[in-house]
Amino acid sequence: METLKQGLKEKIIAVLNLEDINLEDINDNDPLFGDGLGLDSIDALELIVMLDKDYGIKLVDPKEGKTIFKSIETMAAYISANRTK
Amino acid sequence: MRKTYINGAGCISAQKTFDTVFLEEAEINENNTILALKVPVYKDFISPVAIRRMAKGVKNGIVASALAMKEAQVKTVDAIITGTGMGCIEDSEKFLKAILDNKEEFLTPTSFIQSTHNTVGAQIALGLQCNAYNLTYVNGAVSFESALLDAKMKMEEQEASTVLIGGIDETADYTMSLLKLAGFIKKENEGPYKVLNSTTKGAVYGEGATFFVLGDKKKDNTYAEVLAVEILNQLKEEELEAKFTAFLKSNSLQISDIDAVVLGYDGDVEFDSYYKILSENSFVNTPQVYYKHLCGEYNTASAFGLWIGAKIIKTQQIPEIIKVNSLQNPAYKKILLYNQYKGIDHSFTLISKC
Amino acid sequence: MNNGVAITGMGIISAIGNSVEENFISLINNKVGITTIENISTVHATVIKVGEIKKTNQQLADELQLSSDNNFSRTAMLGAIAAKQAVHNAGITSINDCKTGLISATSVAGMDMTEKYYYDYFENTALTKYISSHDCGDVAHKIADELGLEGMVTTISTACSSAANAIMLGARLIKSGKLDRVIVGGTDALAKFTINGFKTLMILSETDNMPFDNNRKGLNLGEAAAFLVLESDEIVKKDNKKVLARISGYGNANDAFHQTASSENGDGAFLAMEKAFQVAGLKPEQIDYINVHGTATPNNDLSEGRALVRIFGEEKVPDFSSTKPYTGHTLAAAAAIEAVYSVLAIQNNVVFPNLNFKTPMEEFNLMPQTTLKHKKIEHVLSNSFGFGGNCSTLIFSKSK
What we know:
The structure holds three protein chains of three kinds.
Chain A: H1 2-15, H2 41-55, H3 65-68, H4 72-82
Helix pairs in contact in A: 1-4
Chain B: E1 5-12, H1 48-51, H2 56-72, E2 79-83, H3 89-101, H4 110-114, H5 119-128, E3 133-137, H6 143-156, E4 162-169, H7 173-181, E5 208-215, E6 224-234, H8 240-249, E7 260-263, H9 273-280, E8 288-290, H10 292-295, H11 301-315, E9 334-341, E10 344-352
Parallel strand pairs in B: 2-3, 2-4, 7-8, 7-9
Antiparallel strand pairs in B: 1-5, 1-6, 4-5, 6-10, 9-10
Chain C: E1 5-13, H1 20-28, E2 34-35, E3 50-51, H2 57-63, H3 74-89, E4 100-105, H4 111-117, H5 136-147, E5 152-156, H6 162-175, E6 181-188, H7 192-200, E7 224-231, H8 233-238, E8 245-254, H9 267-280, E9 289-291, H10 298-312, E10 320-321, H11 324-327, H12 334-348, E11 350-351, E12 373-374, E13 379-386, E14 390-397
Parallel strand pairs in C: 4-5, 4-6, 9-10, 9-13
Antiparallel strand pairs in C: 1-7, 1-8, 2-3, 6-7, 8-14, 11-12, 13-14
Helix pairs in contact in C: 2-3, 3-5, 6-12, 9-10
């Protein structure tokens, strides 16, 4: 789970172009959207594609992203349970 | 009729134009077919959270518009009108390549969204939280003049007191290679590329963002008044001088009233003949100015031309580096600008000291 | 109210017809144009439905009698066909006999060709000619050439509100006396670029679009072109022209909320409609029919619905419908084809139905008109909202 969480942080920084953010800056339970990292709905769509490409999870309804992408913790839990890659 | 004044300007180009007065540090580059931008420190103007998605055109547009608004001392405007010839090609290329390379799979939205032509105007509005009229013109070499014309009309209709207008275009590798293939850009190994008296086809290309804040009230640091703008799709060379005379006449002027003429010479031997007609005939006794050897050719380069014209009126000087001939005038009160690209998209702009 | 600017000609090509007459017949007979895509090969073919014009590029070129070495994009061909129809409809024989302009609108421009040949240009010199047809300006240049138009030509590109802004500028140019006559409208062809772009935003529907329905899933893309001819009252009088309808109001505002989504309370939409009423000198209760933007995305219909409630009052929203179940969302051409439909509504005193509607949205009490309705129509309001928060409203009125 720890490697998954580390990997997720790396991917988020890369995919969302967060040049000024380091791995240590992202805490597992920090909110990713709104306050915290300040991501928005376009970032959510980018993460949905990442879920598909890297973990084989296809989300049909973009609204599902709200709960899944709450924090690194919730993302890792969801991916662990549902990944096909 | 309400008047239109240029009260602020911001320019990002291949020259140091954002932190100098008027081309004191300008350099001519006759060796490259594409001129590189002199970039500002974007982080000084845009937050990292916003910057991460932005391609060059958006970043340059935001900085140039911020500079113009700062100079005009306004925090908001009644309209935002932009012009771009090719739009945001960096992001267009990115999204298209992703479609073709990944066979339409695993595509992400950011570059698609950023590629829409009105994204610069939209992001400026977002940053300013400005709900006002917001338009984008995309029509080759009259894209910027269309924005200028619309802005002037807004003032005349008394629908706006201040308008932000701008011209933005980007270079992007693959698109530039296609334009080279099509003969729009000079061939390699045909340098040095001189814009005046060129013997080769195509032009040296560039990119940039030039913004102005127009207002209906004169201020202490007002550059000039915009008197008239006209756009024509087609014009034959033999009709050019008659057209000019008519344009000036409709503004109660004649050729001898013009103190300087700013011409869009771009070094394309096929079409610079339009400018030559004016240089060698109607305006043979007028100080003549050219500028695309400094900024390169691109669809909205004429915005750089307007920046030059406005600066001439403000400083009452024509820097050596942009002179076509060595004529001078004791005062530069009325300036005429003329531009066209490949024989179409002709524009005439008239500005004056106020 | 003011007299408004005269519309003296119209032309249109869409998934429901190749002329004004054909489009009207489809509208009154519930004949929709939403099908599976045929002209473009895309991996998404089985999961999207589109409003496709069932003509190949060769057929369009033949119709325009273009030479075999032409470099028209599909967008330019559709635009030229519609613009020529409009000019003919307006009875214009000598297009440069007064100050005439063309204000076009497009978002796809020549991308339909560019995406086909992007990697082939360097190997196949026969394709080089398409490099110059990529940009928006080329579409307008080609249309102007087909019309022989020498005067003012420009193009607006503000995503889905583009054509509304073109029509608005045209009206202002006539009012100010800068032009005597102007051809205004928009054109967009289907392209992989836009199909994939909208897919990444997850707002495409696999089934027929259902505007203002609680279970709506998204939009169907479409392609189309439509142009109107606007002429000054002097020209109308001098040439004894028939006035089809008038543009009495227009407004543009920016939502300034998000790059692709509309604000929850429809601020941009509200401001655009408010402005249009101001220009027209009309009150909301004078509107007989609203052709809504109604793309059937969860976001647009909610935002637009809220704005309608704010302008009209929930119980007083006039008969409204989206015609996108017929044609799909034709992007930069949308406001132009819907302008033609607004004029048809006025000429024929009819409200077109909002098809595919079953369940009203829970957020408010708004029921679109679901069947063809005959009633006296004096004023029609048409909305078009685009990415970048660009919101535009036009008001069309019967000519007195």
